[in-house]
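Proteins fold reproducibly. Next comes an illustrative record:
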Amino acid sequence: MFTPDPIPRHTGPPASSTPLGDYLAGEGPGVDGGYAVLPRSLAENMPLPWQQQMRNLLAEFHQAYGYLQWPVYRVVPSRYEWLADLDEDQLAEVGCTIEVGDGGDLEYRLRDGSRVPDPENHRVLVSCLDPIPRNPPDGQQPPPAAPAPQQW
């Protein structure tokens, strides 16, 4: 039997037409304006059902976009640092030099020779050691993953 009561409406916001873009715009770990990086060690330690779903999604993704000329991506773990806090090697990495100006103050210059006006408040991206473990130490199991959010 069918009920004569009306079907209840969904009370939340309308579904997005760009759900992945919306999620990635939230600046989560491993995401910037151009890329979303998934540490392989974490992906391979996800629960088996997650790995199976991820494998299927990636297979479909590669099937759909495999015709493109993919470059080889080199991912370098990095973090933001204040320019004035960098050592000589880090300054060289970001393409900056430091010299003593006419007034005796330190001047920071970029590759193009332009002066950085406020190095104490200028942030740059510098490589760092990878904080994500590659494998669980001594055969220990990784901590359990949080359950996936449910979409209704």
Residues 78-127 form one domain. The two ends are 25 Å apart (CA to CA). The longest helix spans residues 48-65. The first strand starts at residue 78 and ends at 82.
